[in-house]
Amino acid sequence: MNLHRILASVEEVTSLDAAADTSARIASQVVDGAGLGRILRGSWLGHPVHPLLITLPIGTWMTSVVFDVVFKDVATARRLIGVGLAATPPTVLAGWADYVLLNKRQQRVGLVHAVSNAVGVTMFGLAYRAYRRERVRAARVYSLLGLASISVGGALGGHLSYAQGAGMFRWQPVRAVTHRNPVEYRRAA
């Protein structure tokens, strides 16, 4: 099984184009309409913000499963899920800010990435609620389903970045055009 081939196959699903166009339009209205695009895209930082923000929800959710399953500390597991859920809206907004800059093939992958992660967020929301109701077994199932879903979403996000080059060299025009290190470019000139 070639995982790269599976991930790349999403790029070819033209039936996603209408949904991708609608998503890009809505994302542009929400993010750029509110004047948040420049901040959320990370031009002030020199690279996209979304990859930095994803570490908080993913980290807290993975750790919550460890606290529940290994340490049997469901209170900490629930709190960690809550922190991850609270960190999700800015992470989604930053992803939407980047989404509008993607080409069509990247938007197809980005859309499936977003849907997979939305399923994961929903599962962790259900897990949080189950923990609050002291339904630990159900919370564990939701958490594991959530981890599986965000793992698929993460693989697609990695494909976007590393295989498709989404967001790469965005603020480095010499490298974006030549695909060379700026120092090498100056030596060659």
From TrEMBL:
Keywords linked to the UniProt accession: Membrane, Transmembrane, Transmembrane helix
Positions of transmembrane segments: 52-71, 80-97, 109-129, 141-162
Record bears the keyword Membrane: yes
Pfam families noted in UniProt: DUF2231
The DUF2231 domain, residue ranges: 46-168
Name this polypeptide is given: Membrane protein
Source organism (scientific name): Mycolicibacterium litorale
Taxonomy of the source species: Bacteria, Bacillati, Actinomycetota, Actinomycetes, Mycobacteriales
